[in-house]
Specification:
The protein is α/β, with parallel strands linked by helices. The protein has a five-stranded mixed sheet, with helices on both faces. Helix 3 links the parallel strand 3 and strand 4. It is globular and about 50 Å long. It starts with 8 loop residues before the first helix and ends with a helix.
Length: 238
Amino acid sequence: MSGLLPLDPDFVADVLSKDPFITIDGVFNVRDLGLIPAQDGEHVTRSGFMYRSGELSGVTQNAAAALGITTIFDLRSDTEIAKYNAATPQLTGVTILHTPVPERMAQRFQLYASGKTEAFMQLYSEILDAGGPAFGAILRHVRDAPNDSFIFHCTAGKDRTGIAAALLLLLAGASPDVISTDYALTRIGREPMRPLILSRLAREPLFASDPTAAHNMLSSREETMHAFIRMLMSAMAV
């Protein structure tokens, strides 16, 4: 599913109206990571416990209450939050943990621009290296607070969020195919925000001079996640 062309609005609306997507005013690309099967054929992840999304700057108290979340893990850097004026609002009864995954935005944009799987693997390797404290905080929450629902997000809900989701689902026993399918859903999940994303990117010199590079950032291909899982498994086997 290429990131270059807009998706059919009717197709997008139909997919977003069904599980695992959840419609929340002011937030995009929200998905429940429940009911995902393990490879043993006997277990599935618990519904209503783990959620992933794009930025939550528009989330309301009612929306958080409807999800039943107690904790938000914000993977964005301080630079991003300030750049886009997109701080997460304070919510009664919800703990917001700022667990940034440090990154170099200029280099990230350059890697995105190529759209090549190899470039994404370099980026994802750097996210893994820098994201240990953030991903560890999420995993400890699962271990220590198994009854407290939570949501984790970055800006678009694709790369840092996608890696966090992959780690959670791998530990839950999900297959690479299932995890890659979840990753690819982000292409649809953030389509309603396509104009906003492109307008933000247009303010970056790299993308202003090369619209194709900006569109490459919208891609979310299954093969990219498959490549990441292979890279991760190879590193763990050493």
